[in-house]
Write a structure and sequence with these properties.
Order of helices and strands: HHHEHEHEHEHEHHEEH
CATH topology: Rossmann fold
CATH architecture: 3-Layer(aba) Sandwich
Helix content: 25-40%
CATH superfamily: Vaccinia Virus protein VP39
Number of domains: 1
Strand order of the largest sheet: 3-2-1-4-5-7-6
CATH class: Alpha Beta
Number of strands: 7
Radius of gyration: 17 Å
Length: 242
């Protein structure tokens, strides 16, 4: 796709989301989509195979919370299971001053993220190559973050056990889900409360391409009991009761 046409898609995306964005950020978003396309030749970073799909689905979905929630520039953000950088890198491009940590258990994906951030000229990005269960028990990261982002494919009860230990009191976990997200949120209500959180809001929306999505915001209302997250692998094998 020609560069001009791709930039037009970026303009349409930000217009639909009512986001004010400068020329540099637009170019960075497009460059990021192009780097993802290049990275797909070596490893699976996303299910998309075209620039149009990356922009209209992945970038739109990643940036959608900014239409609803104001992330403070002084807040610390943690993108759990970042993979190819979605949603963390698009959000970082839009709010360049916000400090963000990208975490993934796959070393090759961390290397991709490091190279991508360098090419995009982004700073104040930190990287962790580790499992979520280990990170959540690390005093350097436990209850240190204002926002935790997660687009990981896992049951909501599992994501609650992974995300809530990382949040400060009053912090928010933004959980991206498909059309079943609203139902999943209700099913995981007890697990969320057990880890110190409560569901503050659930949003349903539609991507440019027509797919249904949901986003739910979990607020950290109390300290997470020290036993959570449990040992590596256990949350997935035996999710907390809903």
């Amino acid at each position: 796709m020609p560069q001009k046409a791709s930039l037009t898609l970026i303009d349409q995306l930000t217009s639909r989301l009512d986001l004010q964005i400068d020329g540099l950020a637009k170019k960075r978003l497009l460059m990021y989509a192009q780097l993802l396309m290049q990275g797909l030749q070596k490893q699976r970073l996303t299910g998309e195979r075209t620039i149009e799909g990356l922009i209209n689905k992945q970038l739109y979905d990643s940036l959608y919370p900014l239409k609803l929630i104001r992330l403070e520039e002084t807040g610390r953000v943690f993108d759990l299971g970042s993979g190819g950088g979605l949603p963390g890198i698009p959000i970082k491009i839009y709010i360049p001053r916000i400090p963000i940590t990208l975490a993934d258990a796959n070393k090759r994906k961390i290397v991709f993220l490091q190279n991508t951030a360098e090419q995009l000229g982004l700073n104040r990005i930190y990287y962790i190559n580790e499992r979520a269960e280990t990170i959540g028990q690390d005093p350097e990261h436990r209850e240190r973050y204002d926002y935790v982002l997660c687009r990981a494919v896992a049951q909501t009860a599992v994501l609650a056990e992974f995300t809530l230990p990382l949040l400060k009191l009053g912090g928010q976990a933004l959980i991206y889900k498909g059309p079943r997200g609203v139902k999943e949120a209700k099913e995981a209500d007890c697990a969320i409360k057990l880890c110190g959180g409560h569901i503050e809001k659930v949003y349903e929306y539609t991507l440019i391409t027509g797919e249904k999505r949901s986003l739910y915001v979990i607020k950290k209302a109390g300290s997470t009991p020290s036993q959570y997250p449990r040992a590596v692998g256990k949350p997935g094998r035996k999710p907390l009761p809903g």
